[in-house]
């Protein structure tokens, strides 16, 4: 009996997608630390928000911990790409731990902005998501009470700063470009004297990946974002797809999480990945599709990226 022909499926593959320069740098820092000091190398929090990456590094000898107190004396520790409060490296120095900071340089830039505004006597408003490690790290650059967190326009309406005439704002780097612009506009409307960043704090990779999703969202029946549920930039890609006209956008960590039955009748599928998701996981989704469909893959590129960040001096060479 001749098997039924597989239905046709066109995959529009968004580009850019997947790893950004900050994620590549953070992973390489852990690998170089293992090569230099041997296993185990401890890492405070997930180096990036992706379980596949974390498990791959664990297999090489990395040990992920929640706090420094779990790091034994005499072993090196790496701080995650999301950034840490100042109290963390201070504690590492007190304990004389060898420590390497894998904070993304673009997150560090936001830290420096916040410090500059505080030094100039301004109260700092941070646009971001409560509890996200990057937000915890940024607020932890300044004394308690020196920052206020807002996420929505409604938060801006409720904001009661100590001196409305001396305000500045910074943002988490992995937010929705459009949503953040709306919140920033509300801040400027309510506090005309507020000072914003010279250039948008949202990182180039987040911006580029969102633009790529906007390009394909209205052209596909459904869209899959490969990324972790605790990855801010990955979750924003789903929201951007919805807003750009693709109602059937989902976030998955691996191909085996895709509900293929729910995609019955889909003839065009958008595919992208968050900035902490490796390309191998995108390829895994494509291979899973090919087992079920007569699949054609078309890459839709909106820009190219050539950003590179240097390693910390302790690991260069």
Overall pLDDT metric: 96
N- to C-terminal separation?
Answer: 62 Å
Question: In the CATH classification, which architecture of the largest domain applies?
Answer: 3-Layer(aba) Sandwich
Q: What percentage of residues falls in helices of 4 or more residues?
A: 25-40%
Number of domains: 3
**What is the CA-based Rg, rounded?**
21 Å
Strand order in the largest sheet:
10-9-11-1-12
- Counting helices, strands and paired strands, the structural category is alpha/beta
Q: Which series of helices and strands comes N to C?
A: EHEHEEHEHEHEHEHHEHEEHE
Give the total of beta strands. 12
Please work out how many helical segments DSSP would assign: 10
**CATH T-level topology of the largest domain:** Cobalt-precorrin-4 Transmethylase, domain 1
Characterize the biggest β-sheet: 5 strands, parallel
The low-confidence parts are none
Shape: flat
Please identify the top-level CATH class of the largest domain.
Alpha Beta
Beta-strand residue percentage: 15-25%
* CATH superfamily placement of the largest domain: 4-hydroxy-3-methylbut-2-enyl diphosphate reductase, catalytic domain
What can you see in these coordinates?
The protein is of the alpha/beta class and 317 residues long. The protein folds into 3 domains: 8-19 and 204-301, 3-Layer(aba) Sandwich (Cobalt-precorrin-4 Transmethylase, domain 1); 21-103, Rossmann fold (3-Layer(aba) Sandwich); 105-190, Cobalt-precorrin-4 Transmethylase, domain 1, CATH 3.40.1010.20. It is built from 10 helices and 12 strands. It has a 5-stranded parallel beta sheet with strand order 10-9-11-1-12, with helices on both faces. The protein has a 4-stranded parallel beta sheet with strand order 3-2-4-5. A 3-stranded parallel beta sheet has the order 7-6-8, with helices on both faces. The longest helix has 17 residues, at 21-37. The chain is flat. The mean pLDDT is 96.
